[in-house]
Amino acid sequence: MATLKVPDRVTDLGAYVKEQRENAKLSLRQLANVAGVSNPYLSQIERGLRKPSAEVLTQIAKGLQISAEALFQRAGLLEESVGVEVEVAIQSDVRLTARQKRVLLDIYSTFRAENARDDADSEAQADAVAAAVEGTVVPLIAKSKAKNGLKSRRRSTESSTASASPAAQAESVDAHPAGTGRPGAARRNARKRVGGQRSASLRQVRTEDQSTD
Questions:
Q1: Please, what is the angle between helix 39-46 and helix 54-64, to 10°?
Q2: What does the alpha-carbon distance between residue 116 and residue 119 come to, in Å, rounded to a whole number?
Q3: What angle, 0 to 180 degrees and rounded to 10, lies between the N-to-C axes of helices 39-46 and 28-35?
Q4: pLDDT tens sequence across 99-114
Q5: Integer distance in angstroms from the first to the last C-alpha of the chain?
Q6: Nearest to residue 71, comparing CAs of 83, 56, 81?
Q7: What Rg, from alpha-carbon coordinates, does the chain have?
Q8: pTM of this structure
């Protein structure tokens, strides 16, 4: 016949309960009466054949006058859930009735389940908002950057044109000095000067001829 393998943690719990019971000088029957369980059931716990519930562990801890957390840790209950400390506090409170403990544990479990769903919904909503922002704001930022870049290039072009205008004007002045105007006007002025010089020479010759006569 195959035998069931008992978890080491349950075996350690049973050995620990038996050790504490013997230290307290309590018989198996006395501790069973305080814990509200039968002698065979408590015997199976001490031999590591049964894993008691949190409520039974609380009653055993009360009968042994030890911390319930010590038994919960031995049983591995402190590692099973994040809110087990609250459950331990509720179960170990001797001022509460069994019905009050069940009601409090049910309410606590309900609130934790609702908060877990709310957290999941909030995370999904945050992802949706982030996606919406990425789809609208990011393109607007890119469009604004492109528009600013175009304005910057226009200002640069206008600045280059303005700086080139004085130089072009200076070149125009050097090529056409004041009072001469276009190249055709310069030639006409030169012909006038030559004609004037010829007229002056003719007048001088006539004057000399008259003096000789």
A1: 90
A2: 5
A3: 110
A4: 898 888 889 878 877 8
A5: 174
A6: 56
A7: 56
A8: 0.38
